[in-house]
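QA checklist item 7 of 12: single-chain prediction sanity check.
[x] sequence parsed
[x] length recorded as 66
[x] structure emitted
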Amino acid sequence: MTLKIFQVDAFTDKPFSGNPAAVCVLSSKKNDSWMQKVAHEMNLSETAFLMPKLDGYVNKVVYSNY
């Protein structure tokens, strides 16, 4: 399986500052358990999942548990 995952600097407008977060762009909806496993693998405090819907994307955030 190939995933598009980006690491971004959240809560800032300056590079290399703020909080790191992962953004995973999905081609189809996934269940909460699967998303939690991906979030844990990213090892960041927040991972956002963008899932397609008819008029664009819907955002779902899953918080990693360390």
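[x] summary fact logged: Residues 32-42 form the longest helix (11 residues).
[ ] second reviewer sign-off
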